[in-house]
Amino acid sequence: MRPSSGSKTKRFGKDDWLAFGLSRLASDGPEALKLNALVGAAGKTIGSFYHHFEDQSEFFEALVFHWRDTNTRPIIAALEAVPDPAQKADRLADLATRLDAAVEMGVRSFASQNPVAAAALAEVDALRIDYVSGMYQQRFALPASEADTLARLEYAAFVGTQMLFRDQYAEMAPTLAAAFQKLLRGGVPAPRS
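RESULT FIELD:
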């Protein structure tokens, strides 16, 4: 995501900084967000950075909300177009497992070090869990507390898969998501006696 070095380079705008920040966070962790490291990797000046952000705290806040707006809100919007609750769950599994696990884990790592990121991550986690809980209330006519527990279990599996199978996430996530949906449909054979 390094800017081109042609004679006419495209202006590096605010969204470019945010996309570049997420890319660096995914590839090199929170250390990559230090100002000198970030502008050096971007091939830009500190002045270019400050043209778009008052300070690094503003950048951090914008970065985690950019992550929310690119990795959560579009998924929810896509799901709203699916009327059937079972198909909606399958679509969610498909969309969620396509998320870049490195970006997701980078944000979680950053949140462990930065209170602004931690607050934003907590908001996104709650938004995701609440949405899935609502899906399960509708799909299975569950009381809110039971749907919430099921949503938390599924979300814990989603995050855990990213952490445990980071190098095999692209292969493991769809398989595990399908197995979870099969469990919900009653696809577990009865134990043999």
